[in-house]
Amino acid sequence: MAKNKEEKTNVMRVLEQKKIAYTAHTYPHEEGMAVDGVTVAKSMGFDPAIVFKTLVARGASKQYYVFDVPVAENLDLKKAAKAVGEKSIEMIHQKELLPLTGYVHGGCSPVGMKKLFPTVFHETAENLETMIVSAGKIGYQVELAPRDLAALVRAKFADIIVAVSYTHLTLPTTSRV
What we know:
It is a single chain. A hairpin with a 4-residue loop joins strand 2 and strand 3. This protein has a five-stranded mixed beta sheet with strand order 4-2-3-5-8. It has a three-stranded antiparallel beta sheet with strand order 1-7-6. It has helices at residues 10-17, 37-44, 77-84, 94-101, 146-153, and strands spanning 23-26, 52-59, 64-70, 89-91, 119-122, 131-134, 140-144, 156-158. By secondary structure, the protein is of the alpha/beta class. The longest helix has 8 residues, at 10-17.
């Protein structure tokens, strides 16, 4: 969609330095205000299944981990813990995000954090031609090959999202008159 060659984020600079091909995208937003990922995907004209959000969690060992999941999905903490070999994990508090990663909520990217943390992408990314992640600033995204991104951040792929459970759904019944 819209390319913004005037302003480059640190994520874009890292990708260029590592010679990783990407396409920059922007989306409308209020300055400093995070927008939910599904809205971001739709505003850019993309299927939410290829737009990924970056989540940061802490394991029982106090080690930090990065998880990237499609924006319409939720991280399954038990599956995520299993994927990284932890007994359990919990999401970090929003106030911890900036000091730990260098990114604000809504602009967190797996690329260019202050430290490279163990990273896991949801397994659906492995079969995509391209995926979209934050470019490290609200309003900016980058689209690139999942394998290139995974190699850069040393990520692995695993099933880490909450499975849809149909056992709790109630189906409408027909009544006879």
